[in-house]
Amino acid sequence: MLLSKSYRSQFKVLFLREWHVYKKRVFGLLLNFVVLQSFTFAFVQGYIKPLMYFGLPIDRRGLMVFAGSLIFLFIRRSFDFATAYFNDIHVQKHIWYQRTAAPYSAVYGSRVLFSTLFVAALIAAFLPMPKIILGSSFDVSHIRWGIAPFVTILTAAMFTTYAYFCFSFVTSRESIARVRVRLNEVLMWMGAFNATWFAMYTSHRVFGYVSLLSPFTYATESFRHVLYTGSDLIPLSVTMSAMCCWSLAFYLAGLWLFKKKVVR
Amino acid sequence: MRLQSDFLNGLFVSILYGFAVRYFLPAMGMNPSLQYPLFIGGIVSLAMRSAYLHNMNVTKDIDASGFMYYQLASAGSVGEVVLSRLCGQMLSLSITLGSYMLLGYVMMRDSCVCLFSGSLALVFVAITSFLATFCMFWSYRLRLDRYLDLFWPRVLGPMIVFGGVHFTWHKMHLLSPRVAKIFLCSPLLYCTEGLRASLLGNAQSIPLLITVPMLFMLSGMFFLAAMYQLQKRTDCVMR
């Protein structure tokens, strides 16, 4: 069914519909996110934090903290898209019209694919900004350019599928706030957000083992490999494989929940 | 009902932040003397977030449910409504901020910290009144969609960046006195430095004689501005 011509054309129409909805917001997103937020983000995460924590703005440990905090951007952007998905189910109910015209997997899949690509594109536009803003105070000499696009897309895919999965079981706006704080924040702080996995492990073994349970750990460690690789990080092959597995698991679980909701 | 939920949410985040500054960052080589000052910065930003979320409902009360019009009709004046909401928010912020501080005290086990003092009580009132009036003013000024889309990236984001959440003003002053002076423009800096001065009692924070009057002055200004904005937004003649 997935390869049939009608399925593909329906998928394409749904995908283009998403673009039609979001193209009006592109300018605002670029202004708020890529221009304004990049200044504050680069200044705090790329300059102030390393300077305060370790005494030097150019330091490998500073880049490790910076790479961890990038995850926060992925979470915010992917949850923006998932909020629109939630509103389309519970508030404006557009999804019910789409469901009458196309299979549920095409409706869900087209949204996830569009959101993943849009999040990856926004982050890709954002990533050069810290260097432009901070200049020589931001070290890019160890960046592995070859793997950066793959890590960005895979991370965007994992966070988008995760956000859609969360919003497939949430039924009220109050629950959204609870998911954001009690689930996201916990996974984020457990997920080697502020310090590397190795630092968590050395402070106490239990922290290290618990951290491995968070899918976010693999994303933060992957970005650390991109910025400045080292033997103290979880191997890249492990982090990339784990992200693929988590993405697939979140996608299938979200699709199943979506099916339960819309197929009667 | 909301207080319980806000309190639990804040507690989750402050525990996790406490672990990070107490254990993980020192394991990466951070100076341990920064633990408590950074934790204080973190809880002030959490309180700011709590005030932001609280006031999201205020703007809904005007645009969505219209509850504000009912309140205005039953109260004597706009000032009464603003004052009653301010008191409610200050109480809610005091409970959340107080419990985060207590938690930090338990987690950091810092004997230099003084939790019960007159200066701390004064700083507490100053911080909660400033955070409440500031967010209240913006919630009366902006419509819900603009409050959600613009308030954080254009107002609160820069204010937090320059607000001493991730650094101490003294250290910034040592690095660059000129840049440190620019940071004095952020009102949040007076909250973080005021709390640091009253809790840690060291000479490296901005003195309380500066931070407390500044916070009360800003609170008064934003209170008057909030009254004006509410009048303007709900009065169809002034609109």
Description:
The complex is a heterodimer of chains A (264) and B (239). With 264 residues, chain A is mainly α. Chain A has helices spanning 5-22, 26-54, 60-90, 94-101, 104-126, 129-134, 148-169, 173-190, 197-203, 205-212, 215-228, 236-262. Chain A has one domain. Chain A has twelve helices and no strands. The two termini of chain A are 20 Å apart. Chain B has 239 residues and is mainly α. Chain B is 80% helix and 0% strand.
Tell me briefly what this model is.
The complex is a heterodimer of chains A (264) and B (239). Chain A is mainly alpha-helical and 264 residues long.
Please report the total strand number of chain B as a whole number.
Answer: 0
What is the CA-CA span between the terminal residues of chain A? 20 Å
Helix/sheet category of chain B: mainly alpha
- Helical amount among residues of chain A, as a percent range? over 70%
Structural class of chain A: mainly alpha
Q: What is Rg of chain A?
A: 19 Å
Strand content of chain A: under 5%
Oligomer type: heterodimer
Contiguous low-pLDDT stretches of chain A (5 residues minimum) are: none
Question: Would you spell out the secondary-structure blueprint of this structure?
Answer:
The complex is a heterodimer of chains A (about 260) and B (about 240).
Chain A: H1 5-22, H2 26-54, H3 60-90, H4 94-101, H5 104-126, H6 129-134, H7 148-169, H8 173-190, H9 197-203, H10 205-212, H11 215-228, H12 236-262
Helix pairs in contact in A: 1-5, 2-3, 2-5, 3-5, 3-7, 3-11, 5-7, 5-12, 7-11, 7-12, 9-10, 11-12
Chain B: H1 2-28, H2 35-63, H3 67-74, H4 78-108, H5 118-141, H6 144-161, H7 169-175, H8 177-183, H9 187-200, H10 208-234
Helix pairs in contact in B: 1-2, 1-4, 2-4, 2-5, 2-6, 2-9, 4-5, 4-10, 5-9, 5-10, 7-8, 9-10
